[in-house]
Amino acid sequence: MFIMDKLEARFGRFAMPGILKVVAGFQVLVYVLVAFTSSSGGVVESSFYDLLTLERSAVLSGQVWRLVTFIFLPINTNPLWVLISALFLVFINNAIEGEWGAFKLNAFVFFGMFCVAFGVMFLGGWPTGIYLFSTFILAAAVLHPEHEILLMLIIPVKLKWVGIFTFATMVLAFLGSAGPIQVTIFLSFLNFLVFFGPEAWRNYKHRGEVSKRRQRFHDGQLDEDEAFHRCLVCGKTDVGDPEAEFRVAADGEEYCAKCLPGQSSEAEKAGQSLQSD
User: Which end of the chain has the lower number of beta carbons within 10 A, N or C?
Assistant: First the structure.
């Protein structure tokens, strides 16, 4: 994202490293505090819990901290699952931040919070962050689809299947819910679309162009001055630079050797040389 690159160059020094680790830590802390302040032992019955929820009338009365603190509320009432959820959030942070860097992850989290808060304050959305956390899972699944995790700490499963299940759950919840929940689900997913939609569309068009060029090459219809290889990042071609080496990375896209993602990563190891003789 060109805009994101410009923003990072200007404001990147203000980014908070490990932002989802911070969120995970606060969720555990909030759960502990809630457990000590609950009159009946239930999480939502706690007066402290009530102070953190994203409640429109309370925000309008001056309790603006609720625009942020709602993300610190644990999404489960079982202490074991609160801990597992926090550890999973730490893993998601490492997966996304390792690919994007701290600034872009910060932007992803804060823009998502803004979307949810906007929906609650102006569109009658349901005040919950659970679907926003679902988009964090989707982001990790898109960036690292083949990475395996231990589901229930026992069953190995690839992140892409976790992402597909999460997306299906959001769709079913959207179709089977009333207006307020639909608003929150839509705006939470809008955050995901803003960060992944443009790149997905660009990659889709690029694959179509590559497929057409390859078909024309095999049919003997490719002009001598028309490029067969083209780098997705810098646009370098085998016509402009006949000596350049081009590879297909693990994501299925074509890069020159200089722009190949993760020079020491699996993307490079899985890349196969496509340089013309």
Answer: C
Give the whole-angstrom CA distance, residue 277 versus residue 275.
Answer: 7
User: Would residue 140 count as lying in a domain?
Assistant: yes
Three-state SS at 148? strand
Token look-up 């990147």 returns 12
pTM, rounded to two decimals? 0.74
pLDDT higher than threshold 80 for residue 260: no
Residue range 132-153: average pLDDT? 91
User: Do 63 and 101 reside in the same domain of the chain?
Assistant: yes
Looking at residue 118, its pLDDT comes to 97
d(CA 32, CA 37): 9
Q: Is residue 182 part of a domain?
A: yes
Question: Length of the chain in residues, anyone?
Answer: 277
Q: Note down the domain range covering 40.
A: 2-199
pLDDT tens digits, 58-92:
999 999 999 999 999 988 888 888 999 999 999 99
Whether 23 and 65 map to the same domain: the answer is yes
Sorted by sequence, the CB contacts under 8 Å of residue 219 that are 6+ apart come out as: none
Under DSSP, the state recorded for 218 is H
Say if 99 falls within a structural domain.
yes
195 and 270 housed in the same domain:
no
In a domain, 206, yes or no: no
Least confident among 21-35, 92-106, 234-248: 234-248
Structure tokens at 1: 């994202």
Q: Considering its fold, how many domains does the chain have in total?
A: 2
